Amino acid sequence: MSAAKRLSRPVAPGSTIGILGGGQLGRMLALAAARLGLKAHVYCDEDDAPAFDVCHAHTFARYDDERSLAHFAGACEAITFEFENVPAQAASFVAERAPLNPGAGALALTQDRLAEKNFLVSLGLQTPAFTAVSSPEEARAAFGAIGAPAVLKTRRFGYDGKGQAKIASADGVMAAWTVFEDAPSILEAFVDFEFEASIIAARGQDGDFVAYDPPQNVHENHVLRRSRVPSPLSAAQVAQAKTIARRVADGLDYAGVLTVELFVTKDGALLVNEIAPRVHNSGHWTIDACLVSQFEQHIRAIAGWPLGSPERHADAVMENIIGEEAADWHKLAESCGALHLYGKKVRRTGRKMGHITRLGPKTAAR
Ligand SMILES: Nc1ncnc2c1ncn2[C@@H]1O[C@H](COP(=O)(O)OP(=O)(O)O)[C@@H](O)[C@H]1O
Ligand SMILES: [Mg+2]
Fold it and tell me: Which ligand is nearest to the CA of 161?
């Protein structure tokens, strides 16, 4: 395999950047690219992808279609992805043809919860207690060691709570093991957290680093309900969260936006839940409340541009519009908020259809 391409100079306005994945994150990345005078070429294996509506060019093809991938990579000056389950093979294939950021290494690491957690531990960061499990016997033994309640999570392909089950008993762990069809997993201690937060940060190709004020996040049925800034985190905790993000980004020699999801414990510790190698739902408020949004920041980073200011000019509450709630679009449009709808035709339970961000005067510096 030949080496991954590196960006030799910033991608100039008028050029094309490629996005693997066509969901709402890809859509908002393409919109941010357009504002900077860059064109977006979106590659997705679904033909009604939300990002297809707003891009300069699109390819509807499978992720193992090397002809289409080669054509796509040949049309782009720089490439990124908008979801972390992009097949590793497709990522390395395009990375040999055009600079891919974040790189295939960061992608591979975050696709595997066990590798990710081991990496976090190697950086000296705190996580919930966890054990790798690859057989029913190991699952039972791990539950004995970790105790109730625990969470069984498949190592791969989880999102929005899919591929995870809360475990209250040894029988429960065996039942979940069967439902997950023997998928290699980790068993994790369930954290009785005070609240959840996340830190969204960007690292440029020159190692420059910026971080947004961390939001407090509330999940319902494992799906993000709302994010709020400022969060209840103290100034010291905010500084600690930024240090965590920097260590992760430096450790991965990362370029682009990354998100670190945190559990804030009742005694004030920050435990890392997971890393998302991308822009994040808990950062959507940055579009309306910051000088430079997470989406523009990511485009800047992957295009080799200087990073922008992450400064927040307002307090913000971002609320997801989920499933049937989107039927009320007219009412939402009347309400006083910045409405973002993703153009998805089918409303399904739990599906993210849009979000609305409400702003208020800035009340805290963090
Ligand atoms: N160990 C845990 N303790 C308490 N809650 C958890 C734990 N792991 C996950 N959760 C809850 O489930 C949500 C989704 O889990 P996460 O591991 O982030 O998976 P994903 O976002 O990939 O679905 C978390 O944001 C949190 O609300
Ligand atoms: Mg998560």
Answer: 1
Question: Can you tell me the distance from the alpha carbon of 9 to that of 2, in angstroms, rounded to the nearest whole number?
Answer: 21
Ligand 1 pocket, residues with Cβ under 6 angstroms: 128, 151, 158-161, 188, 190-191, 196, 219, 222, 261, 273-274
Q: Which ligand is nearest to the CA of 218?
A: 1
Mean pLDDT in consecutive groups of 10 residues from the start of the chain, 366 residues:
87 98 98 98 97 98 98 98 95 98 96 97 98 94 95 90 91 92 95 98 97 98 96 98 98 98 98 98 98 98 98 98 97 96 95 98 94
H or E element that contains 68: helix 66-74
195-360 CATH fold: D-amino Acid Aminotransferase; Chain A, domain 1 (3.30.470)
Instruction: Determine the number of helices (DSSP H) and then strands (DSSP E) in the chain.
Output: 11, 17
Q: Which atom of ligand 1 is nearest to the CA of 261?
A: 18
Tell me where in the chain the CATH 3.30.470.20 domain(s) lie: 195-360
The pTM of the full predicted model, rounded to 2 decimals, is 0.97
Q: How far is the CA of 161 from the centre of ligand 1 (A)?
A: 6
Output the CA 335–ligand 1 centroid distance in Å. 31
Range list for CATH 3.40.50.20 in the chain: 16-100
- For CATH 3.30.1490.20, list the domain ranges present in the chain: 129-189
Q: Which CATH number fits domain 16-100: 3.40.50.20, 3.50.50.60, 3.40.190.10, 3.40.50.920?
A: 3.40.50.20
The strand pair at 352-360 and 270-276 is best described as unpaired
What is d(CA 96, CA 4) in angstroms, rounded to the nearest whole number?
A: 4
Ligand 1 nearest-atom number relative to CA 188 = 1
Complete edge-to-edge strand list for the sheet that includes strand 130-133: 130-133, 185-189, 150-154, 164-167
**Class level of CATH domain 129-189:** alpha beta
